[in-house]
Write a structure and sequence with these properties.
This protein is of the alpha+beta class. The protein is built from seven helices and ten strands. The protein has a four-stranded antiparallel beta sheet with strand order 4-5-6-7, covered by helices on one side. Strands 1-2-3 form a three-stranded parallel beta sheet, sandwiched between helices.
């Protein structure tokens, strides 16, 4: 257990963790800042646990790179199941995919755009990988949640936050996405491109 943000970052660099549990109200730890700094160094999954039912705080943590966000009191069986689902999902995303613009390297779960590495979280990589293996297929929010966590879980519209983060990282113009597109009333679809996009 880390007693401060600096110590938590130091521990995350010195030790290879499968997953990090982060208390949102932990003393002497600025949780959102910690996630942001961690994401500059590591893609280890982060599960946030908070006593505050603050939707803005939840969305902000997910935007900064948290993979999962749970409210206290947390059922330990559910926590164990969610962590297991995250680790299983990471283990399953082993297929490398390459297009003229976008490449997924499953060996280290990295995304490259025109050969340049783009930092993504384990959740973001899993979503991109899942959608890129089925170009043209529409995934509903419910279906993506089931694929990521299992059908017994519900995480509201957190999938939308992850999709928004992905678009900000891979789309030439996130306001006019050409890869991860919205199919209104149905969900999201990966649209395969055979040409190099230009910035609009």
């Amino acid at each position: 257990m880390a007693g401060s943000s600096d110590n938590a970052l130091r521990m995350s660099m010195l030790t290879k963790y499968d997953c990090i549990l982060l208390g949102m109200t932990a003393p002497r730890i600025n949780s959102v800042s910690f996630i942001q700094q961690l994401r500059q160094r590591s893609s280890v999954p982060v599960v946030v646990i908070s006593a505050r039912r603050d939707e803005y705080e939840k969305i902000h943590a997910l935007q900064m790179g948290a993979d999962e966000y749970l409210y206290k009191p947390t059922n330990l069986l559910e926590l164990d199941a969610r962590i297991t689902a995250i680790l299983r999902r990471i283990s399953a995303t082993r297929q490398s995919i390459s297009t003229p613009y976008l490449q997924l390297d499953a060996s280290n779960r990295s995304v490259l755009i025109n050969g340049q590495v783009i930092e993504v979280t384990p959740m973001e990589f899993a979503i991109i990988s899942t959608m890129m293996t089925a170009p043209g297929r529409v995934f509903s929010r419910k279906e993506l949640i089931a694929l990521m966590f299992g059908e017994q879980f519900s995480i509201g519209r957190a999938i939308d936050v992850h999709i928004s983060n992905i678009r900000n990282k891979i789309e030439p113009n996130p306001n006019k996405p050409i890869y991860i597109v919205t199919v209104y009333g149905k969900g999201y679809m990966y649209q395969e491109r055979t040409f190099m996009p230009t910035q609009n």
